[in-house]
Amino acid sequence: MMRERFVDTTTALLGDDPRTALVLADISAAAFEPAARRHPDRVLNVGIREQLMVGVAGGLALTGLRPIVHTYAPFLVERAYEQLKLDLDHQGVTAVLVSVGASYDRAAAGRTHLSPADVSLVDSLHGWTVHVPGHPDEVPTLLRGAVAADASAYLRLSTQHNARPYGGDGTLRVLRDAGPGAPLLVAVGPVLDAALAAVADLGVTVAYTHRPRPFDTAGLRALADTEVILVEPYLAGTSARVVSAALADRPHRLLALGVGREELRRYGSAEDHTRWHGLDAVGLRRSVDEFLASAPASAGR
Fold it and tell me: How far is 146 from 169, CA to CA, in rounded Å?
């Protein structure tokens, strides 16, 4: 699982690089106990004080350390957003945020543990890189790269994943080429398998990325014709402004799919929420069929 790969990679980084530090707010503290015993000055658990956690990370960064900050997405991004804005960005220091829980992995825990808007909030900050791995095997390389980059980054881990890793540097990777003029579907992270299944018998080109920020706009312009379908595992439309801006000089139609804005007010499992938000293969196929059927007669396909 992604969380285990994160723990293993971070533990190794703490041993390899004396600049690396880890700040926790109880979540995953037990998994990092061996690392805390070996590096008590660089593994800090502040308890259930997420705002303090980010503030401590800002202080560590001011001393020259490279902090990794970790907890559930709603506590890391939504609850501590002011500290991200002030204690990191405003102070001109950087950190690597690593979340678990994604949009609704812990659906059974209720609304407190759901965070479909996290990437949108991080996107309101300046110059952050966002990684959304689609498989556990993508996590170590992404984490090591983020720590080495000395820039602010958000790594969004999930219990949901594709059947195989795809890696790469985050530029759009074509996994299914339907030829010139075909609609382009861009899948981010763990929604790829469902997207591929949804359009398996359609003339749709499918490209994958685990790095929605910075979005590969050059790759998008090279691949896109008239119709673009964006499938993201967080709030629907999060990357719509980036895609629209990249294609502003050419006629295009955009379908942005993701987690809906309406609060469902029910528990269920992560698989239930995927289905309710139309992000399973059946739901995606329904949305894609409606979108393509509504195309003007002059639109190329």
Answer: 11
